[in-house]
# Entry
Amino acid sequence: MTLCKNCYKRNISRNSLCKTCIGSGVRLRKPAGCSNCRAPWVVSRGRCANCYNHLNKYGTERRLYPRKRRPVPKRQCSNCGIVVAVSLGRCSACYQYFHMHKKDMNPKVARSRPSKKNPIKNCTNCGKAHVASKGRCPTCYAYYRNHGSDRGESLLEKKPSAKSCMICDKPQIAARDRCQACYQYYTKQGKDRDSGHARMLYAKSMRPPQKNCKMCGRPQVVSMNRCTMCYQYYNKYGKDRSRREIRTMLARTKPMTQKNCKMCGRPQVISRNRCASCYQYYMIHGRDRSPKRARRLYEESLIPKMWSCSNCKRTPVYMRNRCSACYLYLLSHGRERVLRRA
# Structure
């Protein structure tokens, strides 16, 4: 019993045969699978539709050919060259670095980092942990490639670096046991400068800078130990001012702003040499209040506040740590109110 063309062409699934095939006695059942190709759906005689039709037509089992799968190319990291690539053509470490810093890691650092496939090895010559090629670090490998032999013990021994410059005794070494200034002089002139002169320059550089102008004595030093006005004059005319010109300049300059309020003497000046309260009064009324009243208010603000009257111990406190009755009596009589004994 063969299947019709329609049932043969379409995918055979359970209970999907046409009426003709069902009437002819073909049944679909679900055993373990096709005995020939191990397909999951069986049509008849323990075989799938393809194997059953081939057996019914030719009398032999259908020959199975192994599928040829394309070899999957090994994806290498575009940064460090490791075979395992995770995302964006990078390995996990390079991808995490790229995701965090928005740039690729240095390939040399990426290749030298430890991993299961690339464990850290020490150089066979000097013992350093960074191995470049043939079990040697970059320095030893370059020496081995040029000379054909490893470096000796005399080259491997580190020479103790000088702690100070050999010319001026400066503790900062740049190159060839010299500081930066001495090394620049040596490279330009081809010889070292005088050690005495070099030490003198170094001693001058260690002196604290002058805080006041050396011409007018101002504390605002800009350059060459001069203030802005003296430095501009010197830079323009090539000479310093005379003493007379300096006196006239200092007389014309604006005096420093007053630190204390000119009305009440409060040390907190906001604007126009007045404190906050005096300046507000001046802006509202257009005039200053009397200096006596201003000083009295300032002195009252300095007195620590009390929760009860200092005379009769009443609450609340009105002014000057006194209640209203004691304060009015003090203003009118000039003395404290006498309390009657109960």
User: Anything to note?
Assistant: The mean pLDDT is 78. Residues 112 and 130 are 7 Å apart (CA to CA). Residues 307-342 form one domain.
